[in-house]
TrEMBL record:
Taxonomic source organism: Arenimonas terrae
Domain of life: Bacteria
UniProt name for this protein: IraD/Gp25-like domain-containing protein
Residues of the IraD/Gp25-like domain: 19-107
Region Disordered, residue ranges: 1-21
Composition bias, Basic and acidic residues: 9-21
Leader sequence segment: none
InterPro entries, alphabetized: IraD/Gp25-like
Length: 120
């Protein structure tokens, strides 16, 4: 078991825990939607993807965003996950990022989708 992220309390008033799989998914979400400079003690942490909701949509932007996400995940979570695929969709005011990954030491591929902006 791992600590729940973000930090929270469970129904007993104790520190909440989550499964390893859920913890890693939460870490991926934190990397994706944290803007560099947002964390005082780790100013380089994050990818800044959430800011791209307002950028003009184009195939070039989608490709650049995929590389940005893959690079950020490799930098901050490379010892925890192997990224298999990243898909980025920007529609209107909603940005959806889908990440296919496997936990280190496990070949089982997991897929998680994250969205920011308008309706999920």
């Amino acid at each position: 078991m791992s600590l729940a992220s973000p930090y929270q309390f469970d129904h007993r008033g104790r520190t909440a825990e989550s499964s390893r799989e859920r913890h890693v998914r939460d870490l991926i979400e934190a990397v994706l939607f944290t803007a560099p400079g947002e964390r005082v003690m780790r100013p380089d942490f994050g990818s800044g993807v959430a800011q791209l909701v307002f950028a003009p949509n184009s195939p070039e932007l989608a490709g650049a965003t995929q590389m940005l996400v893959q690079g950020a995940l490799a930098q901050f979570l490379g010892d925890v996950v192997t990224v298999r695929e990243v898909r980025v969709e920007a529609r209107d005011e909603t940005l959806r990022v889908t990440v296919a990954y496997s936990l280190r030491g496990d070949d089982q591929v997991q897929v998680a989708s994250f969205s920011r902006g308008g309706a999920p």
